[in-house]
Amino acid sequence: MPYRAIAHGKSELLAERRRQRALLLSAAVFSAFVNVLMMTGPLFMLQVYDRVLAARAEETLLTLFVLVVFLFAVMGILDFVRGQLMARVAGRMFSRLEARVFGAVLRRNAMRPEDPISNLGLADLDALQRLLASRILLALFDMPWSPLFFLAIFLFHPLLGWLAVAGGAILIGVTLLNRATTRTLTVEASQAQSQAQGIARYMRDEADTLQALGMQRAMFERWHHARGLATYAEARANDRSNGFSSFARTFRQLLQSAMLALGAFIVLRGEMSAGAMIAGSILMGRALSPIETVIGGWSLVARARDGWTRLPDLLEQLPAASDKPVARPQARLRAQDLTVIPPGASAPSLRMVSFRLEPGQALGIIGPSGCGKTTLARALCGICPVAHGTIRIDGTAPDHFGTDTLGQLIGYLPQRVSLFTGTVAENIARMARAPSLEAVIDAAKRADAHDMIMDLPDGYHTQITSTQGRLSGGQLQRIGLARALFGDPVVLILDEPNSNLDADGNLALNKAIRRQKEAQGAVIVMAHRPAAIAECDQLIMLERGVVRAYGPRDQVLAETVRNAAQLGKVMHIDGKPDKRAAS
Questions:
Q1: CA nearest neighbour of 252 among 297, 294, 284, 296
Q2: What pLDDT, in 10s, does the model give residues 249-302?
Q3: CA 20 to 30 Å from 14, out of 115, 150, 503, 523?
Q4: Judgement on whether residues 279 and 422 belong to the same structural domain of the protein
Q5: Helix segments in 206-297, DSSP class H
Q6: Are 310 and 341 contained in the same domain?
Q7: Residue 320 within a domain
Q8: What is the CATH number of the domain that holds 357?
Q9: Residue 358 and residue 360: Cα distance in Å, rounded?
Q10: Which domain holds residue 37?
């Protein structure tokens, strides 16, 4: 990822933080008052030991106690308010960023499905939210006030001050060592956990296949191995972090005892009062408390810090949506010198592909398996990034429309249709929360799937799951076609749309393509079977990612037949070349 891109993503996070500046400043101001009021306890102890007890002044004790109750009540209210403010900051940042992060995670998963950190985006945002709403961040607000307490201890006696500073330095060193030694373990644990969850999701979605092929034990062993690695990595990270936390807690208690011992020694020498000894011990505990809190919650701090580091890169995967309204384009699609390198590949699957499609036309893409048909479909939908060349919809680049708008303009039927848990109507309506049943039925009728859906147990209200166990391959494909047609898209892209269709399904598919053309839409069909290109006006023959033929359908088919016949002349029946015929 280029530095400029990552910087842009980080600037977006910083902009969100700036929007919460008023609340953060308010929390900082309240923290200042809370820490000043923290002096109430030590000063009260100092007055009780040095004045009240020495003078046996009961009225003074009562007056001081009433004042202390009031000050502690104010401190408690301010502490509660700053906690509420930080919870509001966490909620606002999460609500403003969750849609962006969710879209970026989907895009990154589509582009890099094998990337183990593709699924960490929402977890990273959740870690940031939990840190912002936790007491750990309030401890970070309190840390700058620790020097005030150290200074107060120095006023009691320099030896007490130096002991407190030395103890604080040791705890800070423990914090830094905790950070250095647990960061790698935390990242390893997150990646291992994500991999184990991915295997578990795959096992759930492909349960039928695993059972039918007797793969249950083999996949369990793979999941068990991945889960074991995740558990081991998490245990190592937790053990390391808990070790530092235990040391910090124990050391602070030891330090307070050492402070009392040193204070008692100074009191015995007549250099300090007993009240100052008690007050100094309390002040030191208050000065070191934020450091101990941060050490105890360092795993959350480290997790949120890693999320803050990763999120800029992730947000750059999905540019921020434009607020400007975009006019509905006409169905003019143009690709010029299109070169696409699929994620994870080192060589392009498509090279210098060019074509033009006008309203009311259908383009067929044919070629052997692996020639780049699906890659072309994914590139036209904005899923695969384009390495070279341009794509224009009515003269406008797809990125200009934004992800959601582009998805509404393009109806996409993938080679493998996946439905989601919900009703048939919700799936056709692309999982809209309150879909228009009239629009759903219209899309189903345009896909000639209405009667098939009505034959289901509950019609459009039939509940299905992500595994689609109740539907056949042909039913899935026809519902997928209705989903692609929902919302009256400008361009319809169909990847192997008849791979599971029978004769009636093929007739319905061709009828849907014909209706799209009559409505002045454009259609692109990636096909192996001839029935899928019956309504196509133009044809592209792809071979190894390169256009071998492009033109009117009948002309390209005739040229393909001639080439095949010529190839047959130079081949023996056993597949070996005939050198004489070839010459």
A1: 284
A2: 888 888 888 888 998 899 888 888 888 888 888 888 888 888 878 877 777 887
A3: 115
A4: no
A5: 207-212, 216-268, 274-296
A6: no
A7: no
A8: 3.40.50.300
A9: 6
A10: 3-315
